[in-house]
Amino acid sequence: MKITHCKLKKKVQKELLRFFVLEVTARFAADILGIHPNSAVLFYRKIRMVISHRLTLAADEVFDGSVELDESYFGGRRKGRRGRGAAGKVVVFGILKRNGRVYTVVVYNAKSESLLPVTKKKIMPDSIVYTDSLSSYDKLDVSGFIHHRINHCKAFAERQNHIQRH
Length: 166
Known about the structure:
Tnp_ISXO2-like, single chain, Nucleotidyltransferase, domain 5, 4 helices, Transposase and inactivated derivatives
């Protein structure tokens, strides 16, 4: 998908794109460039549509080969408990492909019932999957994946995989 039916000059389009990346409002960018504010707003909307379209296409990608799985917790207060037991935290599950592709999704919790369906949907069978030693990943052993656990107590990060201790 590309931006089409745009009467703005290419130079103005490039400047608007630069302002969009710099998080300048459309109205302020229009003032700077001397164009009508509605033109800038419409162009920003078209940029968002292109981004949305490309993200939708990328979300359908299925990973194969060596991939890493990990969950993280975001939000909540810093005081008190950390990790899985902390209240008010959002669980984000991530899949990393060795070529730098990443897929993340917010899940209800870090139990296998939440993680396994995402894993089966996004990773091809017979792929090599690296995880930490969280028990939620136990079912990967019988789910058609070649599963390797990294024990963070024994090694901070092994050479071939990049599972980090957080």
